[in-house]
Amino acid sequence: MTWKAAYRSFYYEGAPEPEDLVLDSATTALLVIDIQNKYMAVPRSTAEQKRWAPFFDRMNNIVIPNTCALIALFRRHGVERLFARIACLKADGRDRSLSQKKPGWNYLLMPRTSEESQFVPNLAPRDDEIVLCKTTDSALTGTNLRLILRNMNIENVVLAGIFTDQCVSSTVRSLADESFNVVVIEDCCAAGTDELHRRELEIINMIYCHVLSFAELREVMKI
Questions:
Q1: Does the predicted model carry a pTM greater than 0.90?
Q2: 112: Cβ–Cβ under 8 A, 6 or more apart, which residues?
Q3: Residue whose C-alpha is closest to residue 160's, from 186, 191, 129, 199
Q4: Contact yes or no for 89/120 (Cβ under 8 A)
Q5: How is residue 4 annotated by DSSP?
Q6: What DSSP line would sit under 133-151, residue for residue?
Q7: Rounded distance, CA 1 to CA 128, Å?
Q8: Radius of gyration of the chain from its Cα atoms, rounded to whole angstroms
Q9: pLDDT in tens, the chain (223 residues)
Q10: Which domains does the chain have, with CATH numbers?
Q11: What is residue 49's predicted lDDT score, i.e. its pLDDT?
Q12: Which residues are 209's β-sheet partners?
């Protein structure tokens, strides 16, 4: 099954196939979201290690290798690369949005200079690549990403990162509302579980973005 028929939600079960995508390298940018040291740290308890094992397996064997390859591909062809990471500006996190202050799993206190807020080493941005710090789920809402993309005449944004059902999804929706053409690379993304990942892709596909595999993106862009 190709990207034109995959990840269909209830609303789009009988919808016609979308038109072929045109992603010109000059007007396309890659945005990598939140693949940070914090999320690749192995939990301390045995129970949590077991619970999160499928996530780490997907990240180490699929998402990170594919995202590395995607970044390298775009570097070779001169396609813009941007990175967004969760990182607060104040050491005590007073500048964080409410969603990052609430108790529970999503409580996040990662000052921008901390090791856990940095991108994993394999995905480290280079000097001329734009890195944005955000204290929101959406990389568009919490930064000047909108202005940067407009200034660079970017029309198409290719997304990779985590978590599919949280920061990736929020960013997709924000970009779509601003009339950017958004493409999510499904094998460069992950959620806490494969089920959450798949369901969120079904929710956002076709209305807010198009969901493609890395191989399908290469075919579309002919690179």
A1: yes
A2: 87, 88, 89, 133
A3: 186
A4: no
A5: T
A6: EESSS-TTTTSSHHHHHHH
A7: 38
A8: 17
A9: 899 999 999 999 999 999 999 999 999 999 999 999 999 998 889 999 999 999 999 999 999 999 999 999 999 999 999 999 999 999 999 999 898 888 888 888 999 999 999 999 999 999 999 999 999 999 999 899 999 999 999 999 999 999 999 999 999 999 999 999 999 999 999 999 999 999 999 999 999 999 999 999 999 999 9
A10: 25-221 (3.40.50.850)
A11: 93
A12: 205
What single letter denotes the amino acid at residue 14? Answer: G
> Residue 38: its pLDDT value, please?
95
Please measure the distance between the N-terminal and C-terminal CA atoms of the chain and give it in whole angstroms.
22
Task: Quickly list DSSP for 53-83.
Answer: HHHHHHIIIIIHHHHHHHHHHHHHTT-EEEE
**Residue 100 to residue 103: CA distance in whole angstroms:** 8
Predicted pLDDT of residue 18: 95
**By the 8 A CB rule, do 30 and 80 touch?**
yes
Residue with tokens 């077991």: 50
Concatenating the DSSP letter of every residue in 147-189 gives: HHHHHTT--EEEEEEE-IIIIIHHHHHHHHHTT-EEEEEEEEE
Residue type at position 86: I
CB 128 within 8 A of CB 152: no
Long-range (24+ apart) CB contacts under 8 A made by 216-223 are 216/2, 216/3, 217/23, 217/70, 217/158, 217/183, 217/185, 218/73, 220/20, 220/21, 220/23, 221/23, 221/25, 221/28, 223/25, 223/73, 223/77
